[in-house]
Write a structure and sequence with these properties.
This protein is mainly α and 455 residues long. The chain contains 19 helices and no strands. The longest helix is centred in the first third of the chain and has 32 residues.
Length: 455
């Protein structure tokens, strides 16, 4: 979706009403299926730890938690591979079949495999992440040219990513509140079953599935190499900072590595498609540096609402420079609060709402024409950022705590905020260079009807 093309399909209330009346309940079911499937996959990657698994042997839990970043990285790369495969095959039928099989895989992983004699929690963790990557990558080409359904996909991805990233530790906060309790199980069985039911309904009511329209995949290797570059550089920098982030020279070199990797990944994509990659690198790093605890239960629904509002704002009024500037400002505020006020309820509420608004705005303010480029940027959201490595340097692992969850008892790290600010500045410079070096892609015409509607 180029900036010009996507704006022509920007959702308004009148457009939505006309879309519903024209497509009826079939398109509503399809939109719900896409949103719930993307949400399930996002939670499967971001929240791979079920609180019940803490009853296992301590060494098993510790090994699983140490593997969480690698499982997330693997899921992100699999998502890019799945998108490239679906676009190359140009088959909606294959996309929905892959999504169904992957969702069944997650269901079996949560409902079936725990009864099998498998001692490795790390295995459960990786299975969830890999199947989730298949879902995110397979769905994106199917919805990428329909404004409203694409919006449902993006909302599901981002909202689940943010909620999974901000989940609090039950070991410290006590039993989960009503909102977080609904997400228990990572993802919960009720959400998996609901997603499967909606996917099955979508496949059954659509009838004949047509080939996917849109730009031809210029090179199937370009987005794959781009994703490997950005994922590996962020992962290496994060682990480096977790191991030796107490040294200023290490922080400087790790920040430079992230910026260079993000710029190379952006340049590997055609036209200005890489702008979204740079925006997501800046935002994800800033979000991981923000103080989000302690916060009251009512702040969590605000996160979801803020995410939706940010997505709509970026869709209607796209300003990539404004998006990266907002990420930089969020990083600076996080650093200042960590140095002065520290953890506080007002600061945590402000932080989580700002993450939702800024994340949504960044995600829709520079949407590329090609689904294969968009999935690279979306994959960045599911890789532990460099600031997560800085927040974990006190216990030597890329994590928010030895339990993976964010903890209010951990002293906020101002270095994470300053490093995020430097990365945002570097990404802003990269965006400027892309706009100078690359011409805009041709506009992509969007349609309110389904891509796989009957011929």
């Amino acid at each position: 979706m180029s900036s010009a093309g996507i704006r022509a399909g920007s959702p308004r209330l009148a457009d939505f009403a006309a879309w519903v009346s024209a497509g009826g309940w079939r398109d509503l079911i399809r939109m719900a299926a896409v949103c719930t499937a993307a949400s399930t996959a996002g939670l499967a990657i971001m929240m791979p730890i079920s609180t019940g698994w803490f009853d296992a042997q301590p060494q098993q839990v510790d090994l699983m938690i140490r593997s969480v970043p690698r499982a997330m990285e693997a899921g992100a790369v699999v998502a890019v591979l799945a998108t490239a495969a679906i676009v190359s095959l140009s088959s909606s039928r294959t996309a929905w079949a892959a999504t169904t099989v992957a969702m069944l895989g997650i269901l079996v992983n949560h409902a079936g495999l725990p009864w099998v004699d498998i001692d490795s929690l790390t295995t459960f963790n990786f299975i969830d992440s890999l199947w989730a990557g298949v879902i995110l990558g397979s769905l994106l080409p199917v919805v990428w040219q329909q404004a409203i359904t694409a919006g449902a996909y993006l909302f599901g991805c981002l909202a689940s990513n943010i909620m999974g990233d901000l989940v609090q530790s039950p070991a410290v906060t006590g039993p989960a509140d009503e909102f977080e309790g609904m997400l228990g199980g990572a993802p919960p069985l009720w959400l998996i079953v609901l997603s499967l039911a909606l996917i099955a309904a979508t496949v059954l009511i659509r009838g004949h599935l047509t080939p996917l329209p849109g730009p031809v995949l210029i090179s199937p290797l370009a987005p794959i190499i781009s994703s490997v570059v950005v994922v590996l550089t962020i992962a290496i920098a994060s682990r480096w900072l977790a191991d030796a982030g107490h040294r200023t020279t290490v922080i400087v070199m790790a920040v430079a590595l992230v910026i260079i990797g993000a710029m190379l990944a952006a340049l590997l994509l055609p036209g200005r498609d890489g702008v979204l990659v740079l925006l997501m690198v800046a935002f994800s790093t800033a979000a991981s540096a923000v103080i989000t605890l302690p916060r009251p239960w009512w702040a969590d629904p605000l996160i979801v609402a803020a995410t939706a509002l940010g997505l709509l704002a970026g869709w209607r009024h796209p300003r990539p420079y404004l998006g990266v500037a907002a990420s930089g400002a969020l990083s600076a505020v996080a650093a200042v609060l960590a140095m002065t006020v520290g953890a506080s309820v007002p600061g945590a509420v402000f932080g989580v709402v700002a993450i939702g608004l800024i994340g949504g705005y960044n995600l829709t303010s520079a949407l590329p024409t090609r689904a294969t480029s968009a999935i690279v940027a979306i994959a960045v959201l599911f890789v532990p950022a460099a600031s997560a490595g800085l927040r974990g340097r006190s216990f030597g692992r890329v994590s928010y705590s030895p339990q993976w969850y964010r903890l209010s008892t951990i002293t906020p790290e101002p270095a994470a905020g300053w490093a995020s600010l430097a990365i945002a500045i570097g990404c802003a410079a990269g965006i400027h260079l892309l706009y100078r070096w690359r011409k805009p892609a041709p506009a992509l015409e969007l349609h309110p009807e389904s891509a796989d509607s009957s011929a």
